[in-house]
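Session log. Operator J.P. requested a structure for one protein chain; no other inputs attached. Running the standard single-chain path with token output.
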Amino acid sequence: MTPATGRGGETTDDADETDRALVADLLRTVPDFPKPGILFWDLTTVLADAAGLAATTRLLGGTPAGGEVDVVVGIEARGFLLGAAVAQALGLGVVPVRKQGKLPAVAASRSYDLEYGSATLELPADVLAPGARVLLVDDVLATGGTAGAACDLVEECGATVASLAVVLELPELGGRGRLDGRPLHAVLQR
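Structure written below.
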């Protein structure tokens, strides 16, 4: 079998590795944010770089495990930006999962624990069709509370999480275990 070719005649695997290397180089850490003892993985530097954003979009958009997807769901807040870019690249719509109190019409709400507190997410009413296959997009998978809550919201509304795609997974925090076997693709692991 001949490997697929990507940008500039390189194989798709080579192109993916080039994109991963760029994203890894642009990613920065911020110690003691949002509170002492937390090491925050900041994608702002990736998003601010045109080539970095394009590479991230390609890597996230090329990963809908489980087949075709009907819509992209982006998790507040960096997941909005990433989800919108991926949806545009795939020719799909994007749905935001918001923090509590930000939506005028709410279909479902879910509270969960974070590594540094707790939060509540909400999904807008009347935007996910029953049976829709969703690509859920976020920046970082840490303890899995946010991703797990977002998956639960999508499924509570009758849609299916076909795949969850994140830029960075922190495996030592065990977030994958909170996804109940849902397909996960992480561009990078640290």
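Operator note: Residues 1-10 have pLDDT under 50 and may be disordered.
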